[in-house]
Write a structure and sequence with these properties.
This protein has about 400 residues and is of the alpha/beta class. It contains ten helices and 17 strands. A nine-stranded mixed beta sheet has the order 16-15-14-13-7-12-11-8-17. The chain has a six-stranded parallel beta sheet with strand order 3-2-1-4-5-6, sandwiched between helices. A two-stranded antiparallel ribbon has the order 9-10.
């Protein structure tokens, strides 16, 4: 389809830091590698500081800049609002955008509380009746190896799910003098490692297995309770200023649970695992086999088939870069691996496709709410020391 024949999709993005940069690259790249049914146009980016947002617009490729997200709802050239802000703003922006008839992409976790997430999911359901679509940004679903794991499980290749174990390990806070950022403020972030990276762990477990967590028990810990106040921050890095402030979120969360199919699941989310940069480790054991994945080797999936002869049985290492693997045909020759940013492009591709087809994309706000309920149950369990149903 020629570029001129494609209907336009005007995108307005709120926030331009770490996630904003990743989303910007996705919107720039998606129509250049994939044959999209709509033509995304990077119409406007929003930030509170006029000079800084203007600079971000030029640097990231946006046509214009705004200092108030409400302007996006007033503009006829904006069809979709992409929310890349801290969690305390998600509900207000998303609900207002949906009610204004704008499609919405919202970063994870969906909200800072179950109540907020419920209101967002209800707004999304109302909007869907009018053809307005919404998606929550659990981008790791779009890693081709994760897609392959999901398909192997759905096809019954590992049989009945017995064990799920997921770790999300980072170390960027292991230095006790690493400065405070909004991610360490409960008012803005909702929780710490639990919501920031534990949310991904929960979503991946539920996505790959096709099952839901029905009960959990958890522990949460804050190892460093005070840190230097940040003078400035960019992405996950901050520069220390004067004085110290209180950390009001968890540094690490451990929890286990039971899946709807009866299997057992265990989770670990920490930003204190020295030497682990972005280690998302997933292993699922079933009655007929297993799959295993580590994001620090993201182009590889390990698959064990229990039907193989014992003499030669073992995990096979699948390099997920073949043209018949999910998303890969649009990119490079076999063996030329993808990186972190590609999942964001795949997310944009799927969202644009769903909007054009008049279909509700996944993960939906309802999926985001389901994850929020698990996070809430873990937090309440850690406080009470008891097993809680989700």
């Amino acid at each position: 389809m020629g570029e001129a024949a494609r209907p336009r999709l005007g995108v307005g993005m709120v926030g331009y830091s770490f996630m904003g940069a990743a989303h910007s690259q996705a919107w720039r790249t998606a129509p250049r590698f994939f044959d999209l049914p709509l033509s995304p146009e990077m119409t406007a980016v929003v930030g509170r500081d006029a000079a800084r947002v203007a600079d971000a617009a030029e640097r990231l490729g946006w046509q214009s800049a705004e200092t108030d997200w409400r302007r996006l709802l007033e503009r006829d050239d904006i069809d979709l609002v992409d929310i890349c802000t801290p969690g305390d703003t998600h509900a207000e922006i998303a609900i207002a955008a949906l009610e204004a008839g704008k499609h919405v992409l919202c970063e994870k976790p969906l909200a800072n509380s179950v109540a907020e997430a419920e209101r967002m999911a209800a707004a999304a359901e109302r909007a869907a009746a009018s053809g307005i679509r919404s998606m929550v940004g659990f981008t790791y679903r779009r890693v081709p190896a994760i897609q392959l794991a999901h398909q192997l499980v759905a096809d019954g290749r590992i049989g009945e799910i017995r064990h799920v174990r997921v770790q999300y390990l980072q170390d960027w806070l292991s230095d006790p003098d690493a400065p405070l950022s909004w991610r360490l403020d409960k008012e803005k972030a909702g929780s710490g490692a639990l919501g920031d990276i534990g949310a991904h762990a929960v979503d991946l477990a539920q996505f790959i297995t096709g099952e839901s967590l029905v009960g959990v028990a958890g522990l949460m810990e804050t190892f460093v309770t005070e840190r230097p106040v940040a003078a400035s921050s960019s992405g996950l890095s901050s520069t220390a200023g004067q004085g110290r402030g209180k950390v009001t979120v968890d540094d690490a969360a451990l929890f286990f649970g039971r899946l709807s199919g009866g299997g057992l699941a265990s989770f670990e989310a920490t930003r204190f695992a020295s030497g682990r940069k972005n280690a998302i480790r997933v292993e699922i054991n079933g009655s007929r086999g297993s799959v295993s994945f580590d994001f620090e080797d993201m182009n590889v999936l390990h698959f064990f088939d229990a039907a193989d002869p014992a003499a030669t049985a073992g995990f096979r290492r699948i390099v997920v870069t073949e043209p018949d693997h999910p998303f890969i045909a649009a990119w490079w020759p076999p063996g030329h691996g993808l990186g972190y940013e590609h999942a964001f492009t795949h997310q944009a591709v799927d969202l644009v496709g769903a909007i054009a087809a008049g279909q509700d994309p996944a993960p939906s706000f309802a999926d985001g709410l389901a994850v929020q309920r698990v996070l809430d149950a873990v937090e309440r369990s850690a406080a009470s020391g008891s097993w809680l149903e989700v």
